[in-house]
Amino acid sequence: MLESQKSTEQQGEIRLVRGCPCFKVFGDEKLCVNDDEILEVDAIEVHPSLFAFHSNREGMKQEMAKEDNVCYCAIYINYPDNKVYCISQGWVLRIHGKDVPGTDLEDALQFLSTKDMDASAEICSECLYKFLLTLSDIFADMMSKKEKTDEIKRYVDKFSLMIAVKHSQMEGMKPIGTEDDIEEGVDHFGFLREYLVQLINQQKAWSQRAENTDDTDIGEWKQKLFKMREKLARLEFQFYSQTLQLRDINDFHLLIKMLEYILHSSDEILNLNEEIHSEIRSKQFQELVDDDEQLASLSEYAEKSRTVEHNFGNILQILSRL
């Protein structure tokens, strides 16, 4: 979901993916349930990068296994027909009698963290299956509202923590942990508390800088810029506060309403981030930054702004589909 997706490879007309939503493990049995059939398979986990030299479906057909019960636990999206294919057997992926759209699988991939994608193919496969059923309009009737509510809450919980972890490693902040620290049942507020405190301190610091600018044209420009940075820290704090509130919501319609607020906050963050990034890249900023300690501290935001754009852009893209 976030910036690194090591277990996917996009080449030309196709995108290779590790894991498969039709791969299931029950005890010692490994099964393929494509198109609602049940086939016991010999699973051989093959990393998709091994097929990266192919750029289209015709090339991928050469990689089909000779045996009809071999599973590579890897699939690929074929962009020309928007379908998803099994690498080892070549068939189209179908769930509950419906073809899996390639675009829906790509949406599901947005939710996978680096840790998810580096896990076993079994874990990747189960995640993909749940994300597809939650996000896709094609499979909208496959899950109850309660199941969707629980899954959405879990995704947003995890997503927000992953973003906080990434952002805490930038702009001179104190890291709050790593993706490995985000486990099932973690105290989300406890995990975020340190980052939320840092966001409050950021607001205070930028507010003070805005108050201490000169009464000149440049001073007014700096004041506006510092206030924008203060507002961004406040919006980010608001975003995490809203995601924490989701944990106490069990009604599906109320959940969707709260997601609208989260989407609005994310959109505001993206727009303000773009404004700040534009100012940092401006000629005026570049001319002044070397001799201005306050502006120099803001220049550290340049790297973070790209991460903010990526992460909150993903949130808008994914949650707007729910």
Protein described:
This protein has helices spanning 57-61, 102-110, 114-118, 121-135, 145-167, 188-211, 217-246, 252-280, 283-288, 293-299, 301-319; strands at 8-11, 14-18, 23-26, 29-32, 39-40, 42-43, 70-71, 74-78, 83-86, 94-95, 98-99. With 322 residues, it is an alpha+beta fold. A hairpin with a 2-residue loop joins β3 (23-26) and β4 (29-32). α2 (102-110) crosses α4 (121-135) and α5 (145-167) runs antiparallel to α7 (217-246). The longest helix is centred in the C-terminal third of the chain and has 30 residues, at 217-246.
Q: Briefly note the structural class of the backbone.
A: alpha+beta
Mean pLDDT: 86
Number of helices: 11
List the domain count as a whole number.
2
Strand content: 5-15%
What sequence of helices (H) and strands (E) makes up the elements? EEEEEEHEEEEEHHHHHHHHHH
Number of strands: 11
Radius of gyration: 23 Å
Identify the strand order in the major beta sheet: 1-2-8-9
Global shape: elongated
Spatial gap, N to C terminus: 16 Å
Instruction: Report helical residue fraction.
Output: 40-55%
Sheet bearing the most strands, described? 4 strands, antiparallel
Q: Which stretches of 5+ consecutive residues score pLDDT under 50?
A: 1-6
